[in-house]
Amino acid sequence: MTGDAAPGGRGALVIGGDYRGLGIVRSIGRRGVPVWVAQHDDRLAGFSRYAARRVRWSVSSDAEQTERLLRFAHEHGLHGWVLFPTDDRVAAMISRNHAALGQCYRLTTSPWEQYSVAQDKRLTYARADALGIGVPATWYTESIEEVADLDLEYPVILKPASGEIDNPLTQVKAWRVDDRASLLTRYAEAAGFLRRGHVMIQEMVPGGGECQLAFAAACRDGDARTYVSARRTRQMPMDFGRASTFVETIDDPEVIDQGLRLVEDLRLTGLVEVEFKRDPRRGQLKVLDVNARSWGWHSLGPPAGADFSYVAWQLAMGEQVERTQGRAGVRWVRLSTDVPTSVGEILAGRTTLRAYLRTLRPPLEGPIWAMDDPLPGLMEFPTVGWHAGRRIATRAVRRNIDRGSRRRAA
Fold first, then answer.
1. pTM to 2 decimal places
2. Residue 146 sits in a domain of what CATH number?
């Protein structure tokens, strides 16, 4: 598709073509606002009828990406358009270059002073603790010798302080460790690719999907103008999921209160999700993560009466937005990941087929299929297959390189 820039700088540029980007494109495009998609490998958002134009995006250095965005604005008349990142790396790049990009674009990303606290769990937990908001017991160590001296109750988990850098630990979110010997081995492995002090050892908070909760909002300088509380019942993988697969909005005043207070304290702007877990041992809410950019299930917002992306666009444009709380009882499912997750739970005896099917009753929203925008839904499985093929090919190349290295070493 092709399209021209809108007069008066009323448009949006979404960086990222996956289902998170697709939700933003639809939210804003349905309001008659022109939306461009800068896409890399993921292309679902670019198939949307609401994507006025697609442009090629490549992952590179901060300086190169910033220069490319400034060139887009000058070459295509995008001055005054609203810029939406969809992943941690791009959001961090925009945050670090906030002043330069803010000369051309209206931003939905906090300046680095605020964003750096949200994306670093060590800093987030300190701010939450100061507010009287619960955090998991966490140990911060500088060396494996310090780890060896810890007296811990197992199991524990290892997790990175930040998810910005792609590595084996951020790819799976956390590693479970069941004994001291395993802890020392896994810690040494993680220390090989994470910066010193960025390997966190944390208690494993018990409880399943019924304890996985979230506060989600569209904000401006810490002022949440639309928000919901939700239960993240299923995720993939179930223990330490990188992405939710089934979510339901609920009415939880405690989640709302703590989410609002934390977002206000961090003075965050744009799309924000705060992940909590309710510890069943004492019923205490504990903060797990703060995602200061779009999250997987944000397309649940419009049917619940909390259109996160459009409100974030309005706030960036300087418009006045009445504060609203989305309604409870709206469900969201991504079937392509929820079905395999649930099959595993059924086979393990942790749920039944009947119980699973009951969760899929309406009102039910999905991130990809839409009656008014069917092409992304038709392209989802070919796209998933293409990505799977690329991953298999990449692993094969890596194995061949490893074999060659071992032969040369021998």
1. 0.90
2. 3.30.1490
